[in-house]
Design brief:
Two copies of one chain form a homodimer.
Chain A: E1 2-8, H1 13-25, E2 31-34, H2 45-51, H3 55-60, E3 62-64, E4 76-80, E5 91-92, H4 94-102, E6 119-124, H5 133-137, E7 141-143, H6 156-171, H7 190-206, H8 218-229, H9 233-253
Parallel strand pairs in A: 1-2, 1-6, 2-3, 4-6, 4-7, 5-7
Chain lengths: ~260, ~260
């Protein structure tokens, strides 16, 4: 299964190198950095030293400005955060979540319809501040690595190592690694869900339902609701069609 | 259960610090160094930096000259080695071995005595050469962490992190782990979902998105989508609020 590791606003070069090594040793190679502290972080000496031979992962890695640009082709997002957020996705241990995910179980859905995701991304926040709420809200699950309650200070590259390990073991042995053909409709990827939500937000403002000056938690809530639904591509088209009709009606009402 | 981590002939100070942190985050604090390269490794700047607050583990740590001196009070030894040795103990994945060990299985213990061990030690060889054969021979099991066959280069502190994690999970949860954000919202019942859908249908007609003469499968599709989302009561209120605002905007547009 397509697997991407996304580091958001990482500040230590050593952690980028350590992440590349941690990924490669578990057979993963798709790394994206969102707004790292150092623009040249992939070429810094400390990075290369800690990567310890995982140079191909560094060479393939992309640097982007926003999380949106990091989400093409992935349709299931896992936050990693020590602190659960209100209005955020459900908090689960990695092992528990991976079991559910790969069983194709869609806990909380009425008919258990959606199958396995096509691509998974694991998001890691900055060393200092962890993940921002708005990034956590976009995720389908918040993975919480069990740690000592009195010392939860897990190094970033160590967290990547643990997630990569559990995910590798959940996927099954490394050789071959051919995913079973997925039945059922194509799930929308995270980028198209984000695009739809942005469209819908404009429409909700236009019909005077959402006050942009006091948005409260409306959009995060809707985001979570649609995440639970595991939207299909066709449903994205429907929802965008609804948003478009709302915007047109609102425009007519103001003529 | 008494748990000790033993690093043999470690040469990088950063790995000693990283090991202390990796242990502490999983609730372990018994570290012994056998003949490290630097006699002052516990006080080196890089060690302390990478330990990132696990100073009590460093303060308690012992440095000894031989493996024998590191083994007091432990009765089950696990080697960690990438390469199985002839005449060595059985090679197992950590997870598999821990399950057997804690189930009280006697297989693999030196004397075949039943029951759980009183104390366990995990042995890690030097960064360059791994474990010496004669040290592996003393162990009850050789733990092999599953890695990519083409890149098995696991960092020492990362290996400690993975073993500490699997062992912690095998021992059972730590008291006071991360609690979920909320006790779980109330799900909407089928009647209120149906009421919301009827409200939404009228709104979709009003904004000219749904043609009541040719409705196709729009409402059944939306129904399926909302079913998968397992709507909460509060979300029903939100969606009805959106439908109401759509109806009002449409009414204004026709004045």
């Amino acid at each position: 299964m397509r697997t991407r590791f996304i580091l958001i606003q990482t500040s230590h070069a050593g952690n980028v190198g350590g992440t590349a090594r941690a990924m490669k040793v578990m057979g993963f190679d798709d790394l994206v950095l969102v707004a790292p502290r150092w623009a040249n972080v992939l070429r810094r000496e400390e990075t290369i030293q800690r990567a310890s031979g995982a140079n191909d992962v560094l060479a393939k890695a992309r640097i982007v400005d926003t999380l949106d640009e990091a989400l093409d082709g992935v349709d299931h997002l896992c936050a990693t955060a020590m602190t659960p957020r209100d209005f955020g996705p459900p908090t689960r241990s990695p092992r528990e979540h991976f079991r559910q995910l790969l069983a194709g179980a869609s806990e909380g859905t009425a008919d258990g319809a959606p199958g396995r995701p096509g691509g998974v991304a694991f998001l890691f926040g900055s060393e200092r501040f962890g993940m921002r709420n708005e990034d956590v809200y976009r995720c389908h699950a918040c993975l919480s690595i069990p740690t000592d309650p009195s010392f939860g200070s897990l190094n970033l590259a160590a967290a990547v190592q643990l997630i990569a390990y559990d995910w590798r073991l959940a996927l099954g042995p490394m050789a071959g690694g051919v995913a079973p053909a997925s039945a059922g409709p194509r799930l929308a990827d995270a980028a198209s869900v984000a695009g739809m939500l942005e469209h819908l937000e404009r429409a909700l403002v236009a019909i005077d339902f959402l006050d942009p000056m006091a948005p409260k938690k409306l959009m995060p809530r809707l985001n979570q609701m649609f995440n639970r639904a595991a939207l299909q591509e066709e449903e994205i088209h429907i929802l965008r069609g609804v948003a478009k009709a709302m915007l047109e009606t609102a425009a007519r009402s103001k003529r």
